[in-house]
Amino acid sequence: MNKIILIAKKYAFLSVLMLSGCTLFDMELQKKYDYEHKTLDPHINITARKFLESRSYESVENPRDTVFKWMRKGLEYAEIDLAEFEKTGKTFIFLHNEAVRVLDSKTGKATKGLWFDFPIVVTVNPVTGLPATTRPAAKWQDYPKEDVRNYFLYLMLQGDYNFDKLTINNSTAQTLLPPGKVASKTSMLGYLNGGLGFDQEGKMNLQLVNNDDLAPILINGTTKNRSGGYIATNGVVHVYGATVYPFRPQPEQ
After folding, report:
1. Per-residue pLDDT tens for 198-227?
2. Are residues 15 and 94 in the same domain?
3. 3-state class of 198 per DSSP?
4. Cα-based distances in Å from 98 to 16, 110, 149
5. Do 25 and 98 fall within a single domain?
6. Which domain holds residue 129?
7. Which distant-in-sequence residues (6+ apart) come within 8 Å of 43 by Cβ?
8. What is the mean pLDDT of residues 172-186?
């Protein structure tokens, strides 16, 4: 018993000695280190269009920064004029490449993202009228151009919906998607939201999530932003790295 007590006292002494040494060492570092507090400036000093263009295709300035490549390809396929991203008083939802598709390294097929979550319908059950077999999309052209166009119109909001304007309660924003648009049945999107696909009022819900993850912005109760609060010269940009569903949850009956 005495040996055990002696050993315990010995290690307790060493622990105090080590702790004291670390404390003194830390104090010495604090004396020599001149800490300067800085807050990142959210202003990007360019238009939302320039922000998109500068980070979508390879360029001299950013040869490897192509995080918006697949969003840009979708906009081009949908024939949406990029001048929309120069208009003022708007909030723009940008899609990181991973929000469009994450490919399996072996099969080359999408395993995450919009192309996976809204797969192409291959066959329909003649009895139920529901999809029997589907496959992930391989390109934007797998979807009707009108569906892709409506989807991107839904990602442009009228008004300022930056962090300082949002709370933990839903704020409802009007998008550029005209009311009454219905998705085709060529993909699973056309079977969601009661078979309508798109929000019938062309509106989107946004709210802050009250957790330890820097209060991300939740869209329609499903998708949190990857980064956000970029203040362009003509509006606000939030970036999402997962599928953004183009409809608000239907109220329970």
Report:
1. 999 999 999 999 765 567 999 999 999 999
2. no
3. coil
4. 50, 10, 19
5. no
6. 48-240
7. 231
8. 98
CA 40 centroid distance within chain: 20
Model confidence pLDDT, tens digit, residues 89-121: 999 999 999 999 999 999 999 999 999 999 999
Strands 120-124, 217-219: pairing is unpaired
Backbone φ and ψ of 37, nearest 5°: -75, 130
Residues 21-76: tens digit of each pLDDT:
444 334 444 444 443 434 468 999 999 999 999 999 976 666 678 999 999 999 99
Per-residue burial over 127-153, b if 16 or more Cβ lie within 10 Å, else e, is eeeebeeeebbeebebbbeebbbbbbb
The Cα 187–Cα 121 span in angstroms is 5
Note the pLDDT of residue 36: 44
* Edge-to-edge strand ranges of the sheet holding 235-240: 156-158, 90-95, 235-240, 223-232, 217-219, 203-208, 171-174
Residues 124 and 167 in one domain: yes
Instruction: Output the CA–CA distances (angstroms, integers) from residue 64 to 54, 75, 91, 194, 221, in the order listed.
Output: 11, 20, 26, 41, 33
> Which residue matches tokens 């390294």?
105
In a domain, 43, yes or no: no
Cβ-based neighbours of 19, under 8 Å, separated by 6 or more: none
Q: Is the dihedral of CA 58, 64, 65, 69 positive or negative?
A: positive
pLDDT of residue 28: 42
Number of domains in the chain: 2
In a domain, 246, yes or no: no
* CATH number of the domain bearing residue 159: 2.30.180.10
Kindly state whether residues 20 and 72 are assigned to the same domain. no
